[in-house]
Every structure is written in structure tokens, then in C-alpha cells.
Amino acid sequence: MTRFRLPAWFVLLLPAIIVLAAVVLIPLLLSLYSSFTSYRLTRPDSLYNWIGTFNYEKAAKSAHFWAAFGRTLLLLTIALNLEMLLGLGLALLVNQVTYGQRALRTIMMFPMMFSPLLVGFQFKFIFNDNVGLVNNALQSLGLSNTAIPWLVDGQLAFFSILVAEMWSSTSVFAILILAGLFAVPRDPIEAAKVDGCTPWQSFRHITLPYIMPFIYIALAIRSLDVARAYDIVQIMTNGGPARRTELIWTMIGRTGYVDAKMGYANAMGYISIFLAIFFTIYFFRKLNAARAELGMGG
Amino acid sequence: MDENRHHRLRARTLKGLQLFALFIAMCFICIPGLWVVLNSFRPTVEIMAKPPVWIPQDLNLDHYRAMFGGVGEGGVPVLRYFTNSLIISVTSTVIAILVGMAGGYAFARYQFKGKAAIFIGLMLTRAVPGVALSLPLFIVMARTGLIDTHIGLILVYVSLNVPFTIWLIDGFFRQVPVELAEAAEIDGCTRWQAFWKVEFPVARAGVASAGIFAFLTSWNEYALASQLTRSTFSKTMPVGLRDFTSEFTINWGGMCALAVLMIIPALILTFLVQKHLIAGLTFGGVKG
């Protein structure tokens, strides 16, 4: 009877752990190792050419890398904040509607079904300087005589990418926040009204604390794949023209596959992984704190 | 009296403004998608027309015909991509659900050391950017001969979906009272029977919503698929979409038709279970 048995929870978790170890963990260890070598796809034996932290130093000294890194952070910060605010606004608007709310909710979910790649393609088409919807509309309305080079000019391209990214993700926030608004109890709001609170005060001090966990869920879910902006950018501009919309992810892809410098690409990849992990842990901690505040922790 | 009317007027303008804002927001949400759908029915001449043709003159199915015929559009084997996508997405979803159910059940029902740490660890594997993961995966798969095969991509998508599936299913199993399963066991069920006959039916909605998410992720994934597939044998639709672009020209109409083909299954599935979808996300997250 003293036969050793694995605990049940471990057996149940084992398949998940095995799959994740095989597909994520082992390759990541390999990439960690190869980031210290001069590995090039075209010369397999270079995998054993240990060069220490050279790749990391190269990235740290590269102006292109820091430009891409800064641009990635900027895009994420602007996009996540705007998505949250717009999502909140949209959820509040839809919450006011009593007739046809189901239909509105259905429409709101529309962008969630679009592959990020499709979103990129769709907005590449819409912002196309020759046949795109935006330029056609501006010209037909007489607002602009020339074709605006949306995807060619650096700043305009950044703006176009931001629009595409927001289109694809705002609805995630809106739907989750709307679910939160349904869960807000009526009584405290009624009481606040009786006590003479303005609508803003009752929103700020009653509604908002209640929906905060939902906002953090949305942020946590989004932070799990912030890098999906890669698909959008890759199809819209592929980091171009002349690196003006280069994000850290497009830079990794190009260095790894086009220039075949796998070692260097993996070093940058690791930096991007830490960036993603930072975002995820930050939002999960916020989520736990918000849950605890509402007494739903555990 | 006057004040009353003033108030009513203000309330009405406010209501009007709200409806207007909502209308604008809905337009922003719908127009990009509808624009693609519309253009899939228009001949290329009309898409490229300068000045633009605003009222469609000639709607036809040419792009679809060319797409399924495999000729004229540079011979993009769309049907092949479609079946690849379907096989890979469905298989990986089924496996991810089974693995996720086991994992989610473990998190919901058992107490063990380092539970929170293991949970966060699993979640973090999902946060690894696809393009960063694709580099070493490419090397590993090239060595093991899994590149450009269905199995390789299925394996990758299972691992991509397992963390989120565990998160959602964990939340749903927590909604099921422990007493329910205990009562069943007292009545003579084994733990296994108690799970399938009592707990699983109650949490079925959660499993369904996790399944939809897993399917959509696999169906829409691009960053990994674009590197791990090489030929028509395993290319999925998102990768196939690139076949319509050549160095200097883009076949917008053909691309739009393929885009519509990609969206339809996702649309149908999502609408079928949209109620569970929202419930799944919120239960899993807030109360979990």
C-alpha cells in the first residue's frame, strides 16, 4: 500500500504542462541559447559559435532597435488607453438603450471575429492612397484635392495602424465593461440620487469601482496577446516605409527570416518577451487587487 | 411651468445626442467590414475607378467564381487552404478543450502548493509574442521534420489555446457547487462518473465558450502559421490571403472574396454561442 502515487491535480495538469513544455518552453530555451551565438539560418554550424552577450549589446547600441522599442511602447500605451476609454464610453451608451440592445450587442461583437491579419488587410485597403475608402471619401467631399499618402508618411501610417488596432480591440473592452455594468447593483445608485449626488458623482464613486475588475479582465485578456498588433502592422506596412512604422515585432521577423540572423533576432525576441510578460503580470496583479476590493478574491 | 419645459427639452437633446453618438460608433464598427464584403462583389475595374464609383453599378460573383475555379486569380488554391484551416482548427480545438478541461478542473477543485504561481506560469506562456516564438519553433520543427505539416501546426495551436482554455473552464467549474459532486459520490458514483454525469453538464456552457475562443484563435492565427507553413499542403487561409499580393499589385477583389470566406464560419459560430461567450469571459475572470 505504500506505492507512490502522483497527486490527482498533478496528473490532471500533466497534459497541459507537457504540451506547453514541448511547444513553448523548449523552443524558448533554445532561443535563449541561440541568442548568445552568431546563429544564421544559412549556416547551421554557426549555432555552436558562442559569442556571449554580443547580440544583446548590438541591440542595445542599435538606434533602430530603440526606435522600434519606443514606438512599440508608444503604440501599446496609446492604444490600450484609448481602447479602454472608448470601450467604456460605448458600453455606457449601449447600457442606456432599452430597445434593441441585443442587436447592438451583436453588432459590437463584429470586430472580435476578424483575424488581426484581416483587420490589417482591410485597413490597408481603406487607407490605400489610390483606391481607399478614406481618400475617395475625402476627395468626393471636396475636403482634399490630393491623394493623402496614409501608409507612406511615417506619422500618418502610425495613425492608420492605431486606428486599425483600435477597431479590432475596442469591442473586447466594450463587451466586458457592459457585462460589468449589468452587475452593478441598483440600490446604491438610487440612494445616491436621493442624497443629491450628481450623475458624475454616482458614476465616479459607485459605478466605476464596480466595473474596475471588468476593465482589468479586459486589459489582462488583451495583454495576453498584445503582440497581435504584429499581424496588423506586418500586412499594412511591414514596418516600412524605411522603418518609419517599425515595431519591435516586425524588426524581429525581418532580422530572423529575411536577414537570416537568427541569433540576433532571438536576442531581440527575448526583450520583446520580457515586455509582454511585464504587461501581463502588471494587469493580473491589478485584476487581483480589484477583485479583492469587491470581496471576490480567492 | 417654463422650468419644466426647459428640463424636458434638455433631457430630450441629451437623449438625441446619445443616440447620435451611438449611431456614429456603430457606423465605425460596421463600415470597414461591409466595405470589404461589398468590394468582393464588384469587378476590379469598378474598385479601381477614378473618380470613385459610389453607387455599385455591377455586382457579380466573378471573384468567387475565379477563387473556387482556381484560375485567373493566379491559381490560388483556396479550397485547399480552407480544408487545411478547417482540419487544423477543429483538431487543435478538440485537443485543447480536453487538455484544458483536465487542467481547469485541477485548478477549480484541488488545493495544492504553488497553485497561483503555476497558474500565472501557464498564462505567461500565452503572452509570448508569436513572432518571437516562431523563430526557435521554426528551428525545432525544421530539425524534427514537422515543418509544413498539419500535425506541427495543430501542436502549436493546442499549446497556444490551452492557457486561456484553462482560465475559462476553471472559472466555470468554480460555479458548480462542490456539494453536487459529493452528493453524487455518496449515491455511489465514482469520481469519474460524478464528473461526467453531474459537473460537466452544469459547466457545459463554459466549455462551449472556451471552444469558440480556441477555434477563433486557431482559425485566425497568422504570425506562427506564416513561418511554419511552406506549401499548399499545410498553408491556412490567413497565410493564403498573402497570395493575392504580388510585388507591385494587389488583387483587392480576390482578397476581399477570400476575406469573406474566412469570416463566414467565424460569424456563424460566434452568433450561435454569443450569450455563453460573454458569460464565459466574465465568470472566468471576475469570480474565478
TrEMBL record, chain A:
<dbReference type="InterPro" id="IPR000515">
    <property type="entry name" value="MetI-like"/>
</dbReference>
<dbReference type="InterPro" id="IPR035906">
    <property type="entry name" value="MetI-like_sf"/>
</dbReference>
<protein>
    <submittedName>
        <fullName>Sugar ABC transporter permease</fullName>
    </submittedName>
</protein>
<dbReference type="Pfam" id="PF00528">
    <property type="entry name" value="BPD_transp_1"/>
</dbReference>
<feature type="transmembrane region" description="Helical">
    <location>
        <begin position="106"/>
        <end position="127"/>
    </location>
</feature>
<keyword id="KW-0812">Transmembrane</keyword>
<keyword id="KW-1133">Transmembrane helix</keyword>
<feature type="transmembrane region" description="Helical">
    <location>
        <begin position="267"/>
        <end position="284"/>
    </location>
</feature>
<keyword id="KW-1003">Cell membrane</keyword>
<keyword id="KW-0472">Membrane</keyword>
<feature type="domain" description="ABC transmembrane type-1">
    <location>
        <begin position="69"/>
        <end position="283"/>
    </location>
</feature>
<dbReference type="GO" id="GO:0055085">
    <property type="term" value="P:transmembrane transport"/>
</dbReference>
<feature type="transmembrane region" description="Helical">
    <location>
        <begin position="205"/>
        <end position="224"/>
    </location>
</feature>
<comment type="similarity">
    <text>Belongs to the binding-protein-dependent transport system permease family.</text>
</comment>
<keyword id="KW-0813">Transport</keyword>
<feature type="transmembrane region" description="Helical">
    <location>
        <begin position="12"/>
        <end position="33"/>
    </location>
</feature>
<feature type="transmembrane region" description="Helical">
    <location>
        <begin position="73"/>
        <end position="94"/>
    </location>
</feature>
<dbReference type="InterPro" id="IPR051393">
    <property type="entry name" value="ABC_transporter_permease"/>
</dbReference>
<dbReference type="GO" id="GO:0005886">
    <property type="term" value="C:plasma membrane"/>
</dbReference>
<feature type="transmembrane region" description="Helical">
    <location>
        <begin position="156"/>
        <end position="184"/>
    </location>
</feature>
UniProtKB/TrEMBL annotation, chain B:
<feature type="transmembrane region" description="Helical">
    <location>
        <begin position="250"/>
        <end position="273"/>
    </location>
</feature>
<keyword id="KW-1133">Transmembrane helix</keyword>
<keyword id="KW-0813">Transport</keyword>
<keyword id="KW-0472">Membrane</keyword>
<feature type="transmembrane region" description="Helical">
    <location>
        <begin position="20"/>
        <end position="38"/>
    </location>
</feature>
<keyword id="KW-0812">Transmembrane</keyword>
<comment type="similarity">
    <text>Belongs to the binding-protein-dependent transport system permease family. MalFG subfamily.</text>
</comment>
<dbReference type="GO" id="GO:0005886">
    <property type="term" value="C:plasma membrane"/>
</dbReference>
<feature type="domain" description="ABC transmembrane type-1">
    <location>
        <begin position="82"/>
        <end position="273"/>
    </location>
</feature>
<feature type="transmembrane region" description="Helical">
    <location>
        <begin position="119"/>
        <end position="139"/>
    </location>
</feature>
<dbReference type="InterPro" id="IPR035906">
    <property type="entry name" value="MetI-like_sf"/>
</dbReference>
<feature type="transmembrane region" description="Helical">
    <location>
        <begin position="201"/>
        <end position="219"/>
    </location>
</feature>
<dbReference type="GO" id="GO:0055085">
    <property type="term" value="P:transmembrane transport"/>
</dbReference>
<dbReference type="InterPro" id="IPR050901">
    <property type="entry name" value="BP-dep_ABC_trans_perm"/>
</dbReference>
<dbReference type="InterPro" id="IPR000515">
    <property type="entry name" value="MetI-like"/>
</dbReference>
<feature type="transmembrane region" description="Helical">
    <location>
        <begin position="151"/>
        <end position="169"/>
    </location>
</feature>
<comment type="function">
    <text>Part of the ABC transporter complex MalEFGK involved in maltose/maltodextrin import. Probably responsible for the translocation of the substrate across the membrane.</text>
</comment>
<dbReference type="Pfam" id="PF00528">
    <property type="entry name" value="BPD_transp_1"/>
</dbReference>
<keyword id="KW-0762">Sugar transport</keyword>
<protein>
    <recommendedName>
        <fullName>Maltose/maltodextrin transport system permease protein MalG</fullName>
    </recommendedName>
</protein>
<feature type="transmembrane region" description="Helical">
    <location>
        <begin position="86"/>
        <end position="107"/>
    </location>
</feature>
<keyword id="KW-1003">Cell membrane</keyword>
